[in-house]
């Protein structure tokens, strides 16, 4: 049998990371082995992201460099998957005719036809099937933590976002299939699962999301359950109750705010006001006092004026997020926001982004400092080549990274109690107390 190799490069979010695990799973099942050198690969695969202009530019620049590899090795097949594939479709092959196959995130299974050389002619596929539910093998390398899709697509049509166009309408996987996947992961020794969806709060199949969490919580061997992402408008009392009462559900929620100005939230079509968002945060904290809340902010949305920006800074200060992913607004083709008048220039967006990051850094420093002297339980990660001998890392239930010295004998996947002795912005230093 001829040995074949693949090169796989992933851009974007956790959804894409997990989609790449599935494509790698199919390819290895078909007898391919991975190479880190595109010039050595029979199949060169890009799993792309179009959520921001920068990710898109980076991909097209990488694709341009692949052209010379294809010229030297015409038998190599170039595959573009993911959101740019879905969005640009035939435009992509017109721009880069050396690309052989293009398919969107709901058509991952076609990688099997390409790998088995059933697909020989160039094709572009960009429909969203009713449900992406085929059990595709995933090549997960972590061994401790796993991503698990519970739903696909989104119905919310935030005015700046391409996801409803690239990943289609919302479709939930049957709970039976999800729970079977979780039991299988538990059997393989996985300790932590992150349930993935664009808006997990609107998960609905034969049960709703809180009930799905209750069933997941009963699975023996799974120690921690996380989920992303939650839309604030759909955060229910049932979910808050589930986080509070289910022992394996981690005390962390990623709740994207996007702007502190209700006027801008309306332009974004987020369907909540800042006050409604703040009330939900208060209810979360009343019920789960130690919960960590992280968020997303878009700096410089069209028509955002100084007062709107100030409202965002005040919102960040008053809520006191544990962490923030802040980005400059980037116009995406085909979205409603693209057509809104009053786009800000890049230097103003950069200035506003800088204000947001500086403010959040101060908040993060203070929040982390408050953890000094506390005892936290961490789930030990797989060792990382960059770590010094004797060091290990793990995460708290609130998703903070903790570095522990003189503890290398503790196997990955162990739950360890540590005392936090020092806090940095991006990590905490812990001392071992006990393990189980
Ligand atoms: S909720 Fe809004 S931002 Fe999130 S994926 Fe859906 S449309 Fe995009």
In short:
The chain is an alpha/beta fold. The chain folds into three domains: 4-125, Methylthiotransferase, N-terminal domain (Rossmann fold), CATH 3.40.50.12160; 145-369, Alpha-Beta Horseshoe (pyruvate-formate lyase- activating enzyme); 375-435, Nucleic acid-binding proteins (OB fold (Dihydrolipoamide Acetyltransferase, E2P), Beta Barrel). It has 14 helices and 19 strands.
Describe the structure in your own words.
The chain has 436 residues and is of the alpha/beta class. The chain has 3 domains: 4-125, 3-Layer(aba) Sandwich (Rossmann fold); 145-369, tm_1862 like domain (pyruvate-formate lyase- activating enzyme), CATH 3.80.30; 375-435, Beta Barrel (OB fold (Dihydrolipoamide Acetyltransferase, E2P)), CATH 2.40.50. Helix content is 35%, strand content 22%. It contains 14 helices and 19 strands. The strands form 5 sheets. The protein has a 6-stranded parallel β-sheet, with helices on both faces. Strands 15-16-17-19-18 form a 5-stranded mixed barrel. Strand 13, helix 12 and strand 14 (323-328) form a beta-alpha-beta unit. Helix 8 (209-217) packs parallel to helix 9 (237-245) and helix 12 (306-319) runs parallel beside helix 14. The termini are far apart. The mean pLDDT is 92. Iron/sulfur cluster (SF4) binds next to helix 6.
């Amino acid at each position: 049998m001829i040995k074949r190799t693949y090169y796989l490069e992933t851009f974007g979010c956790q959804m894409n990371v997990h989609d790449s695990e599935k494509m790698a799973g199919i390819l290895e099942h078909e007898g391919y082995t991975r190479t880190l050198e595109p010039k050595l690969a029979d199949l060169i695969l890009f799993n792309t992201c179009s959520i921001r202009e920068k990710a898109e530019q980076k991909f097209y620049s990488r694709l341009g460099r692949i052209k010379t590899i294809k010229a030297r090795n015409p038998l190599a097949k170039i595959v573009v998957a993911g959101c740019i594939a879905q969005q640009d479709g035939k435009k992509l092959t017109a721009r880069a005719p050396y690309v052989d196959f293009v398919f969107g995130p709901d058509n991952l299974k076609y990688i099997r036809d390409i790998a088995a050389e059933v697909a020989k002619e160039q094709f572009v596929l960009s429909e969203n099937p009713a449900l992406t539910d085929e059990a595709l093998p995933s090549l997960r390398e972590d061994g401790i933590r796993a991503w698990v899709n519970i739903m696909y697509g989104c119905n919310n049509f935030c005015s700046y976002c391409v996801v409803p166009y690239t990943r289609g309408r919302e479709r939930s996987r049957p709970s039976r299939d999800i729970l079977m996947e979780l039991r299988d992961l538990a059997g393989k020794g996985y300790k932590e699962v992150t349930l993935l969806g664009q808006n997990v709060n609107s998960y609905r199949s034969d049960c709703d999301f809180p009930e799905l969490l209750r069933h997941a919580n009963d699975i023996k061997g799974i120690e921690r359950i996380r989920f992303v992402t939650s839309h604030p408008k759909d955060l229910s009392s049932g979910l808050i109750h589930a986080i509070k009462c289910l022992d394996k559900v981690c005390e962390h929620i990623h709740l994207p705010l996007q702007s502190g100005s209700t006027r801008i939230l309306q332009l974004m079509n987020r369907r909540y006001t800042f006050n409604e968002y703040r009330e939900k945060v208060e209810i979360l904290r009343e019920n789960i006092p130690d919960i960590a809340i992280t968020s997303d902010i878009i700096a410089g949305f069209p028509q955002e004026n100084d007062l709107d920006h100030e409202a965002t800074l005040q919102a960040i200060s008053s809520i006191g997020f544990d962490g923030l992913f802040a980005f400059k607004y980037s116009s995406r083709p085909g979205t409603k926001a693209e057509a809104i008048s009053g786009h800000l220039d890049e230097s103003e967006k950069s200035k506003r982004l800088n204000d947001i990051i500086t403010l959040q850094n101060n908040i993060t420093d203070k929040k982390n400092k408050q953890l000094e002297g506390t005892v936290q339980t961490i789930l030990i990660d797989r060792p990382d080549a960059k770590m010094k001998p004797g060091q290990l890392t793990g995460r708290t239930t609130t998703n903070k990274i903790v570095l522990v010295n003189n503890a290398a004998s503790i196997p990955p996947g162990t739950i360890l109690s540590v005392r936090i002795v020092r806090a940095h912005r991006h990590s905490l230093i812990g001392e071992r107390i006990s393990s189980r």
